[in-house]
Every structure is written in C-alpha cells, then in structure tokens.
Amino acid sequence: LQANNGNINLTQPVASSNGSISVDASQGAIVASGGGLNAAQLVLRARDGIDGTTPLPVLASTLQALNSGNGDIRITNGASALVLDDITSSGYAVRQQGSGAIRITSGGVGPLAINAPLQTVSGDIQLIAPSIAFANSSNAKLDAGDGSVLLRASGADGIVLPAASQIKINGSGESGTRVELETDSLTLGGTIQAGLINGTGHVNIAPVSNLPLVVESVPVAGHLSLAPGALGHISGSGLSLTNYNGNTGVTFADAL
Length: 256
Hints:
It contains no helices and 28 strands. With 256 residues, the chain is an all-beta fold. The strands form three sheets. The protein has a twelve-stranded parallel beta barrel with strand order 8-10-13-16-19-22-25-23-20-17-14-11.
C-alpha cells in the first residue's frame, strides 16, 4: 500500500496473501478508522504519524516502523507474540525521527521481543505486554533521547534485558525524565543509562502486584528509586550504580 501524497486511511481490515504487508505514507500519516493490518511481517513508513483516534490495530509476528516527521507511532498488536526487528536492514526496528512518541501494546500471551533499536529524539518510548524480552545483542536497545522510557510487563516472565542490551535516556529534558520498569520479574544483565547530560534522569523499579520482585543484575547510571514492595526482593548480583554528573543515589520507598 502506497500513497504518493497524503494519508493512508484504513477503513476496513487488510490481510496479506503472501505473509507480508508494506504500508508507505511518506508524505502523510497512516491512520485507522475501522480497519487494521493482518500479516506475518509488517513494514510501516509515514511522515505525520502512525495512529489515529485509537492506536493502529495489527495482527503481526514481526514489525518495523518509521515516522520521519512529527506525530506518534501508536500500535496495538493482537497476535500471540510480536518481534520488533530490522526487516529491511535499515538500522532500526522502530524509529521516530521528529517530535513524537513510540507507544506499542502487545495483548497476546507471548512476549514482546526487541531484536533491533527503538529510537526517538525527544519523545517517550512505552511498551506494554505480558512479557518483554530483549535479544542478547548490542542492537537490542532503547534510546529515548530527551524522553522517558516505560516498560510494563504483567506476566510471570516479566522483563529480560541480557548483558549486551541497553536502555538509555539523555535526561536533558524535563526533570521528570525517567526509565520506569513495572514488572514482577526483572532479569537484567544489560545497562540502564539515565541522566547522561545533566543528571536529571531517574530510574524507578516497581512491582505490578504483590509477587516478589527479583532483580538479578542492574548496572544503573543515574538516580535509582525502588518503589514500595521492591525492597527485600533484590537477589543475584544486585545493583551497581555509576556516577553521572553527581546524580547517583538510591531512594528506598520502604521503611528501613
């Protein structure tokens, strides 16, 4: 599907006969007003946003998306699992090049897998799924620039960030810029970097229920906050803090 000038408006469901769909609105937006996309592989390109009055509904196994101008990338996946990957070998899985956020929700029972970079300039990156798993690769990284990162995983497998993967924000935006991890199971051997420019970045770890929060290894750059219920559930190699612009510290919400 391609529009040489203007928006692509999906008014009814579009399914692939060969397993892949490419949608190109390089001079406009991709919006849904009653339709969605169903394919094993989806490649989405737009200039003015990938969304509508509600997030773009898709049924996909593998997804790549680019917005070259201003506007959010907002996608809801209803399939059992979703992989965010660099299908076209372009150096990214999801990229927002202008002003706008990346917001992806995967409602299936399987994990949301990150195999290639997710990038914004100043917008937030928000991922919500039963579980979120990064590949053990330097390409598996989130970089929200001057925005914030929110990862929410409500399932038993939680969030898995292996040694080679990374979450990064500059912390040069508003003082509320943060990396927020909401999960009951945290297997983090990778790196979380917040506040790289002026030290305003903050990392908050919070359980989503009353289950024990298990943190195996978290090298953190920035200020770390453990929400109520997190203290007492730290195991493995624990927490390692690195000083960036004098803003290293730990806040415990539980009474010591």
